[in-house]
Amino acid sequence: MRLSHLIPPSLLALLPYSLASPHSQSVFSPHGDALSVTLVDELSKDPDYSTLLGLLQRARLIPTLNRLNGSTFFAPTNDAIHRHATLSRLVSLRGDNVNEQLRQELFYHLLNYTVALPEDHNVLVTKTLHFPHGHSEPPCRDPPPSPPWLPIPGGSLGGEPQRLRVATRSGQVYVGVDTFGKGGAHVVKGPVDAGNGLLLGIDRILAVPPSLATVVTTHPSTSYFHRILTPAVTNRLNETAELTLFVPVDSAWNALHPIERLYLESEFATNDLVRIFEMHAVVQHGVKWSESFNPAINLTTLDGRQLNVVTTSDNVLISDADLVEPDIYASNGVLHTISSLLIPEGALQLTPEKFLLTLNCTNFISMIHSVNLTHLINDTDAKYTILAPQDDVISAYGDEELPKRGSEDLKRLLKYHFLPGRWTPKTLKDGLLIETKLDEPGLGGNPQVLEASISRHRERQAQAVPPISFGGASTIGDPIEVNNTVIYFISRPLFPPGNSLQVALPTLNFSSFLAAIFSANLADTIKLSPRTTLLVPHNDAFKRVGLLVSAHLLSASATADLESVVLHHVVDDVVYARGLQNSTARTYPTLEGSDLHVEHTKGGSISLTPSGGWAGLSSQLTPMNLLSETGAVHELSDIFIPRSVHLTVGKLAKAAKGTTMTNLIIKAGMEWVLNGTAPPVDSPWGQSGISGTGWTLLCPSDDAFKKVNLTRLYSDKASMQLIVGQHLLDTPKFVDPSGMPNNNQPMRFRDSDVYETLISPESNYRDVAFREVEGDQVVVGIKNARGTGGKTDWAKVTGWGRATTGGGTGGVIQIDRLLIPYEPPLWIEYGAPVVVAIFGILAIGLFFMGVRKIWRMDRTEATDPSEQAATGKTRTKAPVSAAAENAKSFIAGGFGGICAVLVGHPFDLTKTRLQTASPGTYTGGLDVLRRTLARDGPTGLYRGVVPPLLGVTPIFALSFWAYDASKRLILGFTPNRSDPALSTGELALAGFLSAVPTTLVTAPVERAKVLLQVQGQGGSSTQYKGVFDVIGHLYKEGGIRSIYRGTFATFARDGPGSAAYFAAYEVTKKALTPADASSSDLNIGQVILAGGTAGVAMWAIAIPPDVLKSRLQSAPTGTYSGIVDCARKTIAVDGVRALWKGFGPAMARAFPANAATFLGVEASHSAPSTSPKKKLRVYSRTLSASEIAKNAKSFDIWCSYQGCEEVAFSDLPGDFKVYVDSVFSTRGYLPAEWVDKSTSSAEFVAFLTRAYEECPHLFSKTSSAERNCRLLDEMKNVFLAWERLQRMRSESKDRVSEADFVSNVYESLRSSALRESTYKAKWPIGLPQPLHHSQIRTETLRILNAKSVVPDCAVFVPERDIRKLSLAADSAFKQLRRSKLTGSAARGEVSFACQSTPCVQLPRTPGFQFVSSFWEDKKPVHSMLEDAYRQNRMATAAAARHMHSLHIKAPIFGLIWSDGCVRAHVDWCASKGQEPPGDDGKGEESHVHEWNLDSPASIIEVFLLIKNIDHWTVNGFINCIEEGIVIWWTRY
Fold it and tell me: Which of 181, 534, 1458, 1515 has the fewest CB atoms below 10 angstroms from its CB?
């Protein structure tokens, strides 16, 4: 019998599998008999496999184990089986006839070949005898179709058995590991060779791989894929065989937008999830294990896409994704995890509709479908911002609150929720209007807009998204940005705006204007007019417009006027808030036919000005952006009156129920008042010069005439005119608007306001005054009326209205009583002026008595105690004290100012009225004079004269004082000036600076003067009684700021004006002064010419700022925001020529007024004094030290009064001669060997050789060169200076420049020679007072009053070397300062502080300062060397006097450098009995201490002389100082 006949057919099916296995062993023995030792035997021997044997018997697999040849069995121990839940249950329960599940579990532990265990860290993939099958029917007790020990081939893996991995880790074998060799069951027994196979005991059951659905559920890196699985996809994962699945790991899904992931997790993503599954699944013949990927393979997914799988050296790419974990086994396929999604761009088509459905907006989507607007939510390319209410928001609205589904109204509502474009929070701005998809017919087919509000306060900056609202609906949560769509969730549905009236109606503050619209029957017109903007005045505007204006407009006879007013508030265009805020100036048409002009104020608000109505009327616009279906609605602060509406006094009087008063005006022949026209030329009022049209009528109501006998009154025309004239107020041209919103009164009637009436010129008791009483009630009465009991001279104000005629000024004030003109008794009319005149005369007399007393004052001042101690003499300064001089300057300036005011005020009044009057008021300056004289008489030319008279004394005193102080300041900042006289530019600068303090007084005086000057012009009323009344009103109005209004404009006028003023005066005086005379000797005519020229020069440039100043100071509050705004408006209204208004009167005033000013100043300065003590005439300017030095005669005068004398060198005192010889001695200073040996370059040796030849005594053979290394370096520096001098000599044909000489020679020698002492450049030294004053002439006094000299260099004793004399607690300085030798108390201490130093500036720390030497280089101001020598003598004499005052005996050395030459001299101060202070200079027996630096020996001698002075300063000089001070202190 053949073997094949003995093997069942089912077993034959396994033969190909066994032949294809990696081992060449058969499944069964080729012999029909079982092997002698089998796996079953080995299992039976080990009791640890007893439970496993039982399972094998139940599964009928014992024959299988006996017949296998060369197999491997991973046998679980008893403990492993009991720990496994499934097998434990199978052991305890009675199974079915087949025990299929148990058999498959055990087959998964069997291999049909013997494996070689892998090396460490390697993973071995094996094939088991487990062939996964799906259970087509439940188990039964029928016998199996084939022997139970045979495995059933085929299965869900395409005929392939299930795989099992074996790995070795750290020498230990693990079975059932993952791709990376992790996990698995640990081999704890064996291996045992059982004859027919290898037996390995493991510590746990090997779990059979489940289906792909279960694998996806349990694998840790595919949790998100499991989360989004739908039942349909799960079924396919369970039922599809030979399935290769590429699943993205959890992190790969982060590539999707969070909202896209949220959508995939929702119930609406079923179809898209099936597509995603099919994009990642492959079903082909056989499972695609990872070994099939090498080197490359193309796979087709279930949706037909191609996956390109490429294996590289370090990675496997699945299209664009990396293979993360391959070969995760499953019963029906294999799972590979990848790093990214295999979804092509745009494949999913995630539309806004899908997102909205995901985000709980199903009702919103349902409504969109009902009106066929699905294209708005399904277009992924279009950019939209969707304002979506969620389901809970829509459910809060009932069916009646929202339009019906499918209706056109619902379609409009839904379109209003879609905004074209992506409007993210970053692109939104607060108040931004965004177009929607709703096209509005009322907007001309243009899109309706929606306002966005966003709060970006600092405290909200920490929030990711600030609070946002659209159309008043707040957003909920953060916006969602997906692709081209931005979604905001709103708190309520957005309803499209209604018509303008519907939009304005909820605002209660608009009720008055809305009532006017309905009253004028204009509701339909406004509703239906397309592309319009409604400007609604709030209710308070009707109060400010006046009761009489409102009553007139609402009357039956004024319907046309009311229609014009209403339509004037409807702009014929759509104007949103942003357009109003961004446009600087623009004009808009209205439905009424006239225009509105938009401007921006300085504070940032928006102002609207109508084309007609009242003068100066403007309204503040509040952009509200109340959107309507035809445009927008904004709020106004005031009502506009168009130019087509004429509000006359007659119309307003009728509205005031003043029929009787109207008849009275007509019968009096004054109809022109009611019509708003000027009086006829042939009427009495026209002939008197009255030409104005703006009148305010105090209109008593008809009830006020109940007790008046009208019959008698009508018969007396004069009485009627008198009564009407008492009720007619001349309205000022400028009506105070009090800022926006306007108070549109016909005239201001605040407390204490006073106005002239038509009959005011006839009597002082015709003006009327307003008073505020309790309860905000205003009364008006005849000013100063007494004795009537208040029955006929006052009345309550019950209403008012402003007329539009007469330039928009004037109107009607309704009162409740008739005012009867008042006639005062004589004692009341003239008593008060007489008393005031008497007191005024007495005050003026007392003032001039005080002036005379000050003028006669005389003072003397004693010499400082320090000077008295030094000289033993008493000095008398000037005959008049500084205080008296200041008082005289004050009085002189005031007297000059008074002269200027008295002469120039009529001209100034003319100028001011021309500058402030409206165009056409005057024809010129003569017209102003004519009208002023006609109205007020000659005294009218001096209206407003009191403020300048009161302020002129401090103004002119400050001006002249500040001018002198500024000149001194300029001189102080230029100490090295060549000419002490100020240049014209410097005089102008001093004049400009003088205007700074003067403006503080001038500004309020000018403010009061201007207000007083302009009242009464152009027929205006007299509002102020005087200067104090003006100041009081201004302070009540705006405080100090109101009083000082126009300060900057005043300075802009006075700064440049004063610069030209003083400069022109000084230049003119200088030009008029003869060469041999003083400017103080000018005659009266010359002073007048100089002063007049100064005034003309000032006003030639001061007129434009003066015009702006006058307008700023006279205009009502709020008219101008500043000088720039005033200039802009003035030029815009009147042109550039307006800036030169008043030029003629100003020029006419400039010459006489300012000539009078300077004439008064000069006359008061030169006024004779009766004091018998006057001895000297004080000149205005003192000569400087430089000027004295340039004039030999002046220097001789200075020396004679200082007691200075030039003597021979041999006259030096014996003790001084020792000091001087030591300083001038240069013998044997240099080593002689420097000449013989090469110490440096050949040029340097030649220099020393030449010096040796010229002056051998400089060198010494005993002086060692090695010990003088430092001196050698210094000599080299001297050589370099000498070389530079020679080079300059050769390069310059003329004389060497002093600047080059100083920088190249003088500075080089000084800086290297002065090492121990301290030197200071340009340090001012105080000059001493003259020793006697007998018979001093005026010119001499100018010389003797020189205060300081500024030497080029001063050599000081270092502070450290005299610290013990100044700073110690018991130092000589502190004790002398407190002693009786220097005076007493603080005066003595201050005097000694000045005495302790020769310098002008005191040291920071009080103490001594001493100077041993002064140097001078010849400056350009010195015409010769002698000038510098004389100036140096003044400095050395001052130091010698200083030393003498401190009882110090020491010489002072002086050096003069010029043109390559150096001259030296010595000064000292002789004691009593000695020769007077002298200088060794030009005596017959004297040696001339002078060197020419072209000589090497001379330049070396000069250098050594400087070194000797340096050494003397810190040694011998200090010894002299200490000795003298100690002797002085000890002696006294």
Answer: 1515
